[in-house]
Known about the structure:
By secondary structure, this protein is mainly α. Helices cover 71% and strands 3% of the residues. It is built from 19 helices and three strands.
Amino acid sequence: MFEGNSSLGFVAVLAIILITTKFLGLLFRRIGLPQVLGYIIAGIFIGPAIFGDFCGVTLIGFEGKDYNALLLLPEENALGIFSKIGVLLLMFSTGLETNLKELKSTGLAAVLIACAGVAVPLLLGFVISIPFGGIGLGVGTPEGIFRSIFIGTILTATSVAITVSVLKELGKINTKLGTTIVSAAIIDDVIGIVVLSIVTGIAKAQAGAAQDLSGFEGFKSTIYGTIIMIIAFFVFAVLAGWGISYLFRWLDKRWPTTHRIPIFSLAVCFLYSWLAEEIFGVADITGAFLAGVVLSTVHRASEYTDKKIEVNTYTVFAPVFFANIGISSISFAGLNPTIIGFAVLAVLMGLIGKIVGCGAVCKGFKYGWRESAIGGVGMMARGEVALIVTATVTSAALGKFALPGEFMIMTVLLILVSSILTPILLKVLYSKEKNVPPADEGSAPAEEVVETSTGDGAAEHLG
């Protein structure tokens, strides 16, 4: 047993995490599953979830528990700080890869598909939670109501990385439908993050009200104060972003592709995150994402920044974040048949919600039944954002309203099932497409070809 929170002890913890996450990440990629699942499984194996709780011995453990650990950490440790930096950089990178001009050009269809992709799973997640008051959900208590809303919020997230890879493989990525799916998935995540900010902001306000706070903190703890602060943050983010955008355009002209641009960009990301959480009471990941969106308007600078940040993010911080979910957030000891049954039901509703909601909107825009099904299935995959949302709503910062950590298994199961089913169903649906005259190699028919950006380049660099 060694001290894992000392300088060298923590280095040993990082070494174990990096080795195991890389090995299992490559293994999962080899079998066609997202590498982030491999990272989480690595965390489960090296943490106490299995070997510590059931065998009494683990590689990485926490103080005050009934098991022996090779490297022992206190409950509050540097791993949490590394994980926080990792999630902020992931959301910042997502914002950097958002192309506002392309989102504007996709039209009403992508926007409405995204809205349906958020609204239907959110509603289904809340409704199915109502009968499960025994596991802390339902509408019997304020805590149960918030947790039920959190369940729906988790189900809203979409990861387009898997869909993009399949569409590319089938030569459909640049078709009108393919572009619409990709754009809708990006907008879906934007709306989902806004919803997350609102519900977590109100939950924090209620938790603060229970503590009888006064002054500015007391104002933020009221519902009307929370709403005012959320609106104020988005107004601030836009106005400050306008000035920051002009500043970075000047920097890009004066010192193009120099290291000072990524350094200043990181400073903006961290300041936006701090202001969002500490001043305005909005989720810190929202601040990081909006910082990325602001800087994405300076195209060359944002591309250069993203390339530089990717090295550190996907070498160290992102693997630590996902592994820490398996190490710190997942526990099988607290699972019971009710939670497992609910997780299966939630996964089913999460898949149906995307297919029905997004597919119905596609049908309303005169797509055929097969194309509408493709639109729904294309929005079905989940990935990093779902994990980030789950980590946020299970955070201790939400106090008694936080979702118990046992529900993380639901998100992991959702990602696993959707990652397996999405490529299979897309290939089956496209295989039923009627034969059409071949277009130029690597392109769709001329009338359907559209320039597009996936917005998911971050996911491609996890390997």
